[in-house]
Design a protein that fits this description.
InterPro entries: CobW/HypB/UreG_nucleotide-bd, P-loop_NTPase, Zinc-reg_GTPase_activator. This protein has eleven helices and 18 strands. The protein has about 350 residues and is α/β, with parallel strands linked by helices. The protein is globular, with a radius of gyration of 20 Å.
Length: about 350
């Protein structure tokens, strides 16, 4: 079983790429999804779009595969190999996972029937420099350990702007193959080459500084809802800790109210949120919203209604009080939010 990691920062477009890859591969393939939050919208999306309905889409929801639940992840790899036994297992880690740590972990289970192959990293080109300024060590680690860097979200970029992104990537990883776009009618031969049989190797030293502490960015819990990435990242430069907040149901009284909510998220009214997505109820309709790279998209969705918010700093009380276009319908102090929720004063249910 070849293990192909397809990674990239939050909102880069990993799931969209995997959906396209699955349309072109002729290999017997399974997919293992690892979300940062408590819900996994992406696995449902991949399953719904798969041409081969026998394809297995598995979820790993116990924690981050690069740190807090690495051993459970490796056990899952062994289970897939002996149970389903696909020719290829595509793993989509959380966008905040450290690739070098995942690859180092896979070395523990590598043998003739489990072979990690050269990873793919999806890079949102338009927001590349903004993201790398804020999350440099994490993104550099992903790029440094990639065999193939594939751009997404290049709309409106000039050739010079794309070249600047490529130059920075070459600086981080001179040996990586770079593809500017996979959405421009690539040949079947190109897609076949993407499913590389070249074996993966962990980059140690240089820009990525190896596997810090064996579990990446000081891996631990930022709080009960997120994984921390502290100063123990190999070069003593602290990275933001990511946290998450999830809702089982959010209701809006109009599409306009949902759009205003998305605009407020982008303006950081609810804190520093790098990624948000979910299926919400608007009147009697299910709609999906996606927020990444300082933009949002609202499309049709399907139940169940679930939403997740991920970022270095979430204003939890404000999000709970105002999310969904509804405020609590009687005055209460923020300290009593939980009590009010139990009493039914909010339209939001299932907060975690």
């Amino acid at each position: 079983m070849r293990v192909l990691i397809v990674t990239g920062f939050l909102g880069a477009g990993k799931t969209t790429f995997i959906k396209e890859l699955l349309k072109h591969t002729k290999r017997y393939t399974a997919v293992l999804e690892n979300e940062f939050g408590d819900i996994n919208l992406d696995s449902r999306e991949i399953s719904a779009s798969a041409d081969n309905k026998d394809m297995q889409v598995l979820e790993f929801m116990e924690g981050c595969v690069c740190c807090s639940k690495k051993d459970s992840f490796l056990y899952s790899i062994l289970t897939v190999s002996t149970g389903i036994a696909p020719e290829y297992l595509i793993v989509e880690p959380s966008g905040v996972a450290k690739l070098s740590s995942i690859l180092a972990g896979l070395e523990k289970v590598r043998y003739e029937k489990i072979i990690p192959v050269s990873p793919i990293v999806i890079v949102a080109a338009k927001s590349f420099f903004a993201n790398i300024r804020e999350y440099g060590n994490l993104m550099e680690d992903q790029i440094a350990n990639a065999g193939h860097v594939i751009f997404s979200k290049t709309e409106g970029m000039s050739a010079d702007e794309l070249e600047e992104v490529k130059e920075k990537i070459r600086e981080i990883n001179p040996g990586a193959k770079i593809t500017e776009s996979y959405q421009d009618g690539k040949s079947e031969d190109w897609w076949t080459e993407v499913m590389s049989d070249e074996e993966a190797h962990v980059v140690v030293g240089g820009i990525c500084h190896g596997v810090a502490g064996g579990n990446g960015y000081g891996a631990g819990l930022a709080d009960d809802n997120g994984y921390g990435f502290g100063a123990d990242n190999g070069d003593n430069i602290a990275q933001p800790a990511f946290e998450q907040m999830t809702f089982d149901l959010m209701e809006f009284n109009s599409v306009g109210a949902l759009a205003v909510f998305c605009e407020d998220l982008l303006s950081k009214s609810y804190g520093d949120i790098a990624r948000a997505k979910g299926v919400v109820k608007v009147c009697d309709e299910a709609l999906r919203f996606d927020i990444a790279d300082n933009s949002y998209v609202i499309t049709g969705g399907e139940e169940p209604f679930q939403s997740v918010f991920i970022g270095p700093s979430i204003d939890r009380e404000k999000l709970l009080l105002n999310a969904g276009g509804y405020k609590l319908n009687k005055k209460i102090s923020k300290r009593n939010v939980a009590k009010a929720q139990e009493e039914g004063y909010t339209k939001i249910r299932g907060v975690r």
